[in-house]
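Subgroup meeting minutes
Present: P.N., E.W., G.H.
Scribe: E.W.

1. P.N. recapped why we're keeping a running log of single-chain structure predictions: easier to compare across weeks, and new members can see raw inputs and outputs side by side.
2. G.H. added today's entry (168 aa).
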Amino acid sequence: MIVHPIPPVFDENARVLILGSFPSVKSREAGFFYGHPQNRFWKVTAAVFGEPIPQSIPEKRAFLLRNHIAVWDVIRSCEIMGSSDASIRDVTVNDLSVILDAAPVRQIFVNGKTAEKMYKRYTEPVLKRPCLCLPSTSPANAAWSAEKLAEAWRIVRTAAEEAVRQAT
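Output recorded in log:
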């Protein structure tokens, strides 16, 4: 059983929540989300927000918070072979109230089909809040170019900006 080692990133200004499934081996080693050098999360979100790609963990954290984004994963612990989502079993989920009670999150996004499946199975019935599935930024999703991903992920910026506008 592997327990999720990375705390969520959020503050009281978060308007959107992006959930992955479970951190990859590389992310667990790096101690931060989307740590595999081939994962396109940082490249895609930087393109969406028109910013340089953050490199260090402090830069990544600042990027997320500046853009009103909270990030975590659906799964708190599981059995997993390497980084293979297909091998995930014996799932327990993260308690998203840690974020949702502290921040006025308007939209929950999931990064890929495994995160969507886990969210719909375990989390949505409890929270009664739907998620919107975005195409995975994983290198395993080779059918999607970074440009095509950025086009699909623009909805994150739209949702964050709209939520901030409505709050003022």
